[in-house]
Write a structure and sequence with these properties.
Mean pLDDT: 91
Order of helices and strands: HEEHH
Largest sheet: 2 strands, antiparallel
Structural class: alpha+beta
Radius of gyration: 25 Å
């Protein structure tokens, strides 16, 4: 596969390579020079970044409050 350097110093990674490696927009790379070659190593996604936005819109507080109310009802039923 061939890639070309743009006037801005950008290189497009071929789609097949991006797909195989699971690369997405914003992926960061470690860049190394080794014996006249350029090595691009994708950086792993941090756990925080992986979860960012995953639970947007989830109402955990309401669920926890209901769970707590149910526990109180269960305890009251056991005591009576």
């Amino acid at each position: 596969m061939l890639a070309r350097l743009s006037s801005k110093g950008q290189v497009v990674i071929p789609k097949a390579v991006r797909k195989t490696l699971g690369l997405r927009r914003g992926t960061q790379f470690r860049v190394q020079l080794e014996e006249g070659r350029i090595i691009l190593e994708p950086m792993g996604i941090s756990p925080v970044d992986a979860l960012y936005g995953k639970y947007a819109g989830a109402d955990f507080l309401t669920d926890l409050e209901e769970e707590h109310r149910q526990e109180i009802r269960n305890e009251a039923a056991i005591r009576s």
